[in-house]
Amino acid sequence: MPTVYLAYGSNMGDRQKNINAAVKLLNQAKITVTKISRAIETQPIGGIPQASYLNGALEAQTRLSPTQLLKQTKRIEHTIGRIHGLKNGPRPIDLDILLYGNLKIKNKGLQIPHPEIKKRKFVLNPLKEIAPNLNNNFL
Question: Which fold has domain 3-132?
Fold first, then answer.
């Protein structure tokens, strides 16, 4: 079963409750969360003025394909109340696929490894916390 890494973030409502709900829904969707980084508070990047985020990363195991995993993360975001449309806007939950095993994918709807890993310390540092020996080819 492939190991996948996801970034999570929340800056609306009860941020920790939203993150906990996302983890629960991931597990229910056959995405078994095996490690979760501590959440760090960060300032938003771009977009309209908004509250600070709680960000982190998690490790999971899944038999879902990358496309199925993306569909499930978008469904979970919607379930928790995210409305897509405003770029870099506030959100109750954001789930991004960072890595999916050793796969490299680049198409219109999905890019793995996530293209912003190197640029976002709020993703990179939590990822290093839960996977310190991860292959650094993408870093």
Answer: Alpha-Beta Plaits (3.30.70)
